[in-house]
């Protein structure tokens, strides 16, 4: 809901109980650290997020065998923070550690491997290496196509990612094609005021804005805002993004 101080309050209450009831290296303590780290991450306090994600990781390392999937999740979380901090080489390092564990412990078309390819693709996209980003996003998409039903929301995420790279490359017709594929799936799979639909309208609006079709851009940004206003609390950061986009047009 975007009420991070409340989320933190409850996660910390949970953690205090775990600390009293469990031995110091119990995996549930690591999960608890992860939850707290996740809130700090969403608040944009990346140094705090890193601190808690690393505590979680140390606990997992002591409690679990070296190729356990939870360690991969842990590397992923740390990678995500570095990515958001703009330290892309570090992000790549941790995402690749996560991938190596998943490769050993999972079958070749497992959706978790697709998640890993997506993460690596995201870093390359942020680094401006769009051909690499596309390569990894397409690998992720192939796995999802094999393992998921045709209207699964995860496929929409996949189309979105590919659309984003084409948008960044300035290939707006391709970007629009993939964003619209994503939107069609979301329309079928999600309730009409779901925030994911708002994101989808926002992406399409951005492409129209980039090609100079401002009335179309405005139309989609306003659709985005309408859902965002209904779905999220009044001080949620996504509303600020939405207002910004309309101001930009």
TrEMBL record:
Gene Ontology CC entries for this record: kinesin complex; microtubule
Similarity field: Belongs to the kinesin light chain family.
Protein role: Kinesin is a microtubule-associated force-producing protein that play a role in organelle transport.
Assembly description: Oligomeric complex composed of two heavy chains and two light chains.
Protein species of origin: Rotaria sordida
InterPro entries to which the protein is assigned, alphabetical: TPR-like_helical_dom_sf, TPR_rpt
Keywords: Cytoplasm, Cytoskeleton, Microtubule, Motor protein, Repeat, TPR repeat
TPR repeat positions: 30-63, 72-105, 114-147, 156-189, 198-231
Protein name (database record): Kinesin light chain
